[in-house]
Amino acid sequence: MWILIDENVPVQMLETLTWTLPGHKIRHASEIKWAGKKDLALLPDAAKKGFCAFLTRDARQLEDPSETDAIKKSGMHHIRFQSGTERYGRAGPGNGGCGRRHAADSR
Predict the structure, then answer these.
(1) pLDDT attached to residue 83
(2) Radius of gyration (Cα) for the chain, nearest Å?
């Protein structure tokens, strides 16, 4: 499974998740030069590149109908968490499993 980490998640999570989830391809938005890219453009682009899940700390995405629609249309799993003393949470999946081809694999 390919997982994209949003730029609002500390880049240090990349190493932790790579170690924790062997066999998964995990990329940080800054690593693939997508830092600063707005979510409405990032989500469909990520899905086209073969990412299956999007890890973010942006709780506001679910309050914006256009972003919620973009999440749904992407078909990616949307995983949201909060750090510190706040609770961890998860927003539901897009359209389930990921059987995508991975066109973005350049490594």
Answers:
(1) 73
(2) 13
